[in-house]
Amino acid sequence: MSDTTELGADPTDTHEAIMCGTYQALREHGYAGLSIQRIADETDLSKSTFYHHFDGKDEILLSFADYILEQFTWGLRIGSTGDPVRDLYTFLDLTLGIHPSDGDSPNTEERLATYLELRSQAIHDPEFRDKFTEMSDGYVDHLVPILQDGIDQGVFADVDPEQTARFLLAIVDGIIVEVTTRTDDQRPVLWNALEAYIEESIITAHPQRADS
Amino acid sequence: MSDTTELGADPTDTHEAIMCGTYQALREHGYAGLSIQRIADETDLSKSTFYHHFDGKDEILLSFADYILEQFTWGLRIGSTGDPVRDLYTFLDLTLGIHPSDGDSPNTEERLATYLELRSQAIHDPEFRDKFTEMSDGYVDHLVPILQDGIDQGVFADVDPEQTARFLLAIVDGIIVEVTTRTDDQRPVLWNALEAYIEESIITAHPQRADS
Fold it and tell me: Which of A79, A192, B97, B139 could form a disulfide with B108 if both were Cys (CB 3.0 to 4.6 A apart)?
């Protein structure tokens, strides 16, 4: 990244502006329709500023993937509450957005759509594939101790923690596909189904859960 | 579509050649990297032949989506065997490819990757969104009677057939995301997890299943 910035702006601010512009352009035009011009149109920056910071569109998009993955994974830094049921639902809230019946931030679908758009680039792009494999494995490393803790406490059934963690991630990804690529909103029915799966297949008791 | 074809070929053959070329070009370059030139490079046809048949790239890709969805949904025409467990697993075999431990057709991952690549276009493209909503609802219409049949026979637990069908589709989509966008092969662990879910949450008995 160059430290030459337009209008004397802080380089960090310029980078942030480029990332925000990329987010907006991706939402409007999709990955296949992205261009540096279209990203620049979403910012107050000139195309030449972009070339001070990045070699080209591909480099911007890789940097944008890091920017988004950072946002998706910050929640992993939250420590355990000691209640594995609560920790499990907190993880699902963070990856899927808040339960729709509890109210929802207005941009949840946009955020999930951006995630799926970037993730589908991993089909062809080995650098994206590496990034998302690392992200998913980070999720597994977060979930396995939660599941193991629940098993040890007798709150969860004696499931295989890693297999169950990977299955939960697949379910999360599948719900994201359904939520972002259909004409209707499948979140209520799929969230109910996910809760039913967790209640029937993972949780055996709620000795420590405070529901009220 | 025009009936003017190159080399006097049958228009159906020309359409098929364009679809096959599109499939190859999509595998090589991804959706964002597609162009009519790149599709033409995968065929013996000239670019002008493409413009006889289609108005442009977007129209080719919509037609290609129909072509792929037709291949994905032909299995829905298979009638019930009367054994809901077998019917359920046949459906999953068709949507996910054969169980990896039973041997696998070499192009399963490519086929699933093509599906995900097209499906992710539905994030931005209302025509793709309509197509995939219709496809998914067709899957639900296929699964619900299988689940209801199993419940009526006492083979399946008393699940909500539509919610369970939609959850199964989300799981299938999530497994497709994991299988096509990571650096390793998650199929064995995810298929085992899917079987465990079906055995624990859906199937209550196997009175009619012939496992041998």
Answer: B97
